[in-house]
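The following record pairs a protein chain with its ligand, adenosine-5'-triphosphate.
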Amino acid sequence: MARSDLILNLVKAGVEGNTSDARSIAEAIAADERAKKHAGVADRISRVLDAATPSKGSGRNSPAPRVRDGSGGIQRSEPLCSINELYLDATARSACDELIEEQRRADVLRAHGMEPRHRLLLAGPPGNGKTSLAEALAYELALPLFTVRYEAVVTSYLGETAQRLKRLFDFVRTEPCVLFFDEFDAIGKERGDIHETGEIKRVVTTLLLQLDDLPSYCVLVGATNHPELLDRAAWRRFELRLNLDRPTSHQMITYFSDQLKKFDEQPGYTAKRLIEKVMPTSYSEAEAFFLDIKRRYALAQGERELRSVIDSRVKVFASRRYRPDREYMDD
Ligand SMILES: Nc1ncnc2c1ncn2[C@@H]1O[C@H](COP(=O)(O)OP(=O)(O)OP(=O)(O)O)[C@@H](O)[C@H]1O
Ligand SMILES: [Mg+2]
């Protein structure tokens, strides 16, 4: 039997003639039925929906996104970055591999009465791969990436925020996806904060209930630069918690060596020597440095040696050098 809230919403959408919502809700019911192992019912719903799919280029459902959550609180994108493109330490990589395997082989787990893990929290300073990893997980699982747009969810009326959150999760449940909550601390804030009113507690409570209700075919990835701000109850909801810290000097050497090898000319620097000059503190900075070199090198069209291009980029980066956050993690 489908969930009564979904049936009620379906009736409401039907009565109001809102075909787009009716379709989303019917898809949610199909997904719900499939999760309950009622494949026959789920297939029949899908067939009815397929038969009624509007032709290409017509109607307000085309082109993608196929369905919307009504509040514009979610941005849908097709992921392009694979996990092998990211530099992850062994702990993070093996945790991600496990999550991917559990999701891919969820049927085996369900046959044993278990669900795959599907809630992952990523913490760490800016520019070390939180957003990229959410995308890479979606890529590896061949799922769409749904990114929460806070500006469309959080309003100054917290009662309304709770409502919008509920609608957002109702939408998300309609299909398997990776749901990415960036700056998760913005919503999952510590409820004990003395400056907060009872209303924020309501928002957090709604969030927690929705997290509990999220089906395991929706993979939730929360990201935060401030894990200490997270409500402990929200924090506990995540079955996997990973730190994507600043690269260690050893990891940075690996990154630089790999990048230098991509040029077909001798760079005139060892990775170590170049890092001492540039002193990047995040993968993002290191990436920006090499992108800069590649741009200038391409434009030089063989008129300048690689070494001279690198020298000039080193000068540019060195001139930006003073920043109080500059430090390496110890190996
Ligand atoms: N571990 C990594 N391996 C390879 N590239 C990385 C890694 N981390 C970051 N990058 C590169 O740096 C850029 C920024 O990374 P990303 O947006 O994923 O960082 P973030 O942790 O989400 O930062 P923020 O906290 O500012 O949102 C991306 O273009 C990505 O390619
Ligand atoms: Mg990010």
